[in-house]
Amino acid sequence: MKRFRIPFVLGVFLILCSTAFATVPNVMNFQGILRDSSGNPAADSSYSLTFSIYDALTGGTLIWQETQSVSITDGLFNVLLGTLTPIDEAVIDGNARYITVAIGGSPEMTPRTQLVSVPHSLRVATVDGATGGIITGDVSIQSNLNVSDTVQTAAFKMSADAGNGKVLTSDANGAGTWQIPIGSPQLTSSVSGYDNQDDIDSGTVSGRIVTFTKIFESSKLKITYSDNLRVLGVAGQNNGATWEIKLDGLSISNPHSLKTTVEADAGGTTFHNIHRQSTLIGYVLGVPAGIHTVRVDVGPTPLGVRGNAFTGSYSTFLLEVEEIPEP
Prior knowledge:
The chain folds into 2 domains: 12-125, Immunoglobulin-like (Sandwich), CATH 2.60.40; 186-324, Jelly Rolls, CATH 2.60.120.760. It contains no helices and 19 strands. By secondary structure, the protein is mostly beta strands. The protein starts with 11 loop residues before the first strand and ends with a strand. Strand 13 and strand 14 (250-251) form a beta hairpin. The strands form 5 sheets. Strands 10, 12, 16, 18 and 19 form a 5-stranded antiparallel sheet that branches.
């Protein structure tokens, strides 16, 4: 009867995935050479090899076992342990582990061989017990991530319910959600100038136009317009004009229009030159999120009077749009 002995010439190593949380193939590449009692390589054939892992060099508890039919060529064999019975983190848990081999019904080879550091990398699948390291590439966490210390990151993204301008808030249990900052106005855009006089009687007043981006669907807009509105009253004529704030080229109606009128009824031979520093402040509802334009147009009075209107004269003007989030 022949006796066999197996020296481990290449040791033991693992095949690991590139990411910590991907599904780790719980297998171990095991290589060796099988010789007969004379030291010659075993004949080429298939042999039934039983691999066993214990928690002690002698005696101890059997932790894992697997039997495979292994092809041997020139005495050499290569096998992936765990192909039939996965080697999970309960097997490689950071404690000392020892492997041995039995051929057919023969007793196990002695002494057992200790598994060294690389096989224990299987614990990366569970992360617990890790003391540090660097992970490159994307990591996907399918359940909760519990951190007992500070989390530091160069960027942050929480996609659920996210939106431009929202803030991250917490409830009494520490659960975070994205919320609109209620009642906190955001200056969206503005334009201002000095002595920028425009003598147009009908159309858009020069320089009084603002393009902005509205962030929230449910927010309202606050529009402020301050300017010197001037009408020159010529003797014997009824002159006047209406200044109106328009949104995207249309009159505002929700909840009401934003306009003011100045009239100069000279009558007879009297000459009137009315300068009125005026400020219009109004709110606009129902404006969808996106890019919009606010402008100031000048036109006839409600009675159809038009003429000799001047916008801005030796004064400062301001056209400002604020977005006010609402619940």
